[in-house]
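Data availability (excerpt). The following record was deposited with the supplementary files.
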Amino acid sequence: MGVAERGVNQRGRSRGAPMTQQYTGLTVRPGDHGYDESRRVFNGLIDRRPERILRPSDTAEVAAAVRTVVEAGAPLTVYGGGHGVIGSAVADGAVCLDLRALARVEVRPDERIAKVGGGATWGPVDAATQEFGLAVTGGRVTTTGVAGLTLGSGSGWLERYCGLTCDSLVSMEVVTADGRVVTASTEENPDLFWALRGGGGNFGVVTEFTFALHEVGPMVLGGMLLYPGFLARDVIKLWRDLVQDAPDALGSGVALVTAPPAEFVPEPARGQPAVGVIVCWAGDLEEGQRFLAPLRDFGPPAVDLVQPMPYTAVQQLLDEPNPAGMHNYWSGDFVAELPDEAVDRFVTQAQPAPSPMTQIILIKGGGAISRVGEDETAFGQRQAPYNLHYLGMWPPDHAEDQKNIAYIRDLTAAMKPWTTGNAYLNFIGEEGLGRVEAAFGPEKFARLQAIKDVWDPTNVFRHNQNIPPSRERVAAATGGGTAG
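Predicted structure:
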């Protein structure tokens, strides 16, 4: 087939290079300079060796790479930001499609949109959009990949004000499993657009996101209040009651942490269990100060770092406590209710953590999230009042692995009576298909499988929290084989 395929078929419009074109871009193999650095991901527990790493420079090269790998019958992974805890960006013996050269961020302030490459991370997006007093909900750590966060729905400090990251999507440029380039939007391929908004990286390679932007900042009221750990129960209950009917302008979470050995922390509190209240107020600053007064009057906090600051500074608050290369084990749940009994169980089970780097964060839901219809996107749980993130982190010491993993597992089990039974896809670990299905519920999962059957019937994009084609699930359930 020597002519570029630009026609329309049953899956929508496609465009791009001839289908026979093979990948000729940059390739890194074991032993090459930069191979070991290129295969590293955020989670230091992951140490995998791809057969080779392809580094395309544009969408056409991505499409050629997908065609080349699929025609060769090789397993394929996709590296966006490499921040996912299960390390799905790399796999032993697979071909890694590295998108990090596709990191362009173009802001069009007059149109209030940003076009963001599939290999970008949130720090540059925040910086570029804030030049114009605009933003979209981004990750809480600036090195988080745009692609992974967005495709998994996208939780961040602005979610109650602007909605989840996927709620601001206008369109996406997608390379499909058969190497075509298509647009996914409400007008073009709406089934694919629906699935990509919270259904994960199961349906194609997104090479460009177009986001609608919102007026934010550049100054917000942000920072953290830190209290000694013995006050954790009282602080959480006070925070719970305060944020129950909070304005959309408030993005906030309460975190069980270990106080860092930093100068701003009183010396007796350093290295001790602590409870922190994290704040990002995107509305009127004086109104925000009045709203937060009860938290400041209680205690008062041992550390008060809440003040007017650039939104980009708020986005960087958790960067230092989340360095790359540490060992990580995460999980996540949506919390349906938070009675006093749940708070007491939470604190008793969580303190003290085996590692001072571990962070257990309870985040307030609602606001703009809840005003999007439950079935408008693949992501659900729109009415859940809280999102609970269990972030186990410790220095790279394998002797400590099992202890820290067991801690997270025990804590999640202890909190199950108060959860919805669903999960935040981006924080699901190596927990199997059942946990992935629980993230969506049976009806949405069935719809996602039907879309998978159309767009990726041979399960090319399976190295993630995978939604398999329906025939593979049937084969697995009956003891048969699965497609490669």
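Summary of structural features: The two ends are 25 Å apart (CA to CA).
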